[in-house]
Amino acid sequence: MPRRQRSTVTGYPYHIIIRGNNRIPMFRRDADRLRFLTSLEAYSRATGVQVHTYCFMTNHVHALMTSMTPTGLSVCLQGIGRRYVRYFNDRYERTGALWEGRFRSFLIAGDAYLLMCGRYIELNPVRAGLVQGPGEWTWSGYRTRADGVPDSLLQPDPGYLSCGDDESERQRRYRAWVAQGIPMQELTAIRRCVQQSSRFGMTLNDQS
Fold first, then answer.
1. ∠ CA 89-93-98 to the nearest 5 degrees?
2. d(CA 31, CA 172)
3. Residue 4 located in a structural domain
4. What is the reported pTM?
5. What is the distance between the alpha carbons of residues 133 and 143, in angstroms, rounded to a whole number?
6. CATH number of the domain that 35 lies in?
7. I need a labelling partner for 182 at 20 to 30 A (CA). Which of 55, 95, 134, 207 fits?
8. Range of the domain at 23
């Protein structure tokens, strides 16, 4: 029986996490990341899902995404899963699951929390010791948001737009924001949401 599609709150951003099964690498080379990026762009456009930022690590993926329909995220990610896993298994002559079950997700409520989550996502390679600064990692949205490097996939979220009145100011203030690093209390709160798939930020009623 096909797996039932998971519903999300329309118009609200979610932090999405996809992990390799048993922590195996999802990407073995940059060509794999490029294939995943291409699939993400194709399926996000087809399903009306906005992608605000992302980070492709070795055995997991983070993304900040907003769906305009209740099942858009599920449809988008299921499509990517089918296409990318088939490509990966064919290329490396393997069989079986690549992803660790269903994707994890949690809703983010409030512009300030969006900024926190974006910073958390884009600093993943720094925390992992892969680079000294987020701008050195090609496979994330940081260089677009902080330096204006073109990326046809990304659409700005309200948190990022709140950083300034024009793109130059937003980039400057966003660079400064990320450069502050993540306070331990904030890091702990986000990790708790990742583990529990619980809302990060204020309640929806608080925003009305």
1. 30
2. 31
3. no
4. 0.90
5. 11
6. 3.30.70.1290
7. 207
8. 13-198
Say if residues 25 and 36 touch (Cβ distance below 8 Å): no
- Asked if 116 and 140 touch (Cβ cutoff 8 Å), the reply is no
pLDDT tens column, 58-114? 999 999 999 999 999 999 999 999 999 999 999 999 999 999 888 888 899 888 899
Say how far apart CA 97 and CA 46 lie, in whole Å: 25
Please report the DSSP string for 146-165 in residue order.
HH----TTB---HHHHTT-S
Domain membership of residue 6 (yes or no) is no
CA–centroid distance for 37 within its chain: 11
Distance CA 188, CA 35 (A): 32
Which residues, listed in sequence order, are joined to residue 56 by a DSSP beta bridge?
Answer: 61
Q: Which helix (H) or strand (E) holds 185?
A: helix 184-196
